[in-house]
Specification:
Layout lengths: L1 H96 L16 H7 L5
């Protein structure tokens, strides 16, 4: 009887060990599948992050371009208005320094400023 009991116990233990081995194999396969999925997701998230950082860098560069263009336009407008002011000031000083003497019966000679000369001269061909 003892031998039968021991052999029955041995059969149950081998069945239990076999089922544990099967269970371990299933868990190993599930673990490998989970690791594969995790690698794929990590790769996808890295791609998304790099795309976002690239896109953010593009947006930042575009913004800097816009800011630079705006500043240059502001500077150009300021320089144009300053140039107009300086031309008017120069004309005013010329009139002050070189008064025109009116001769009776004659029309006064036109004042020849640099800007007037530029528009009245014939164009070179």
């Amino acid at each position: 009887m003892r031998i039968r009991a021991k052999s029955a116990q041995f059969v149950r233990m081998t069945d239990k060990v076999a089922s544990q081995i099967d269970c371990n194999e299933e868990l190993t396969l599930a673990t490998e599948e989970a690791r594969r999925i995790m690698r794929e997701r990590r790769h996808l998230s890295e791609l998304a992050e790099s795309r976002q950082s690239t896109q953010a860098a593009r947006h930042k560069a575009r913004f800097q371009e816009t800011v630079t263009t705006t500043r240059l336009r502001d500077i150009a407008a300021a320089q144009a208005s300053e140039l107009l002011y300086l031309q008017a000031e120069l004309d005013r000083w010329r009139k002050r320094s070189f008064p025109s003497f009116v001769i009776a019966g004659r029309a006064p000679a036109p004042v020849r400023t640099a800007s007037a000369r530029r528009f009245n001269e014939p164009k070179p061909r």
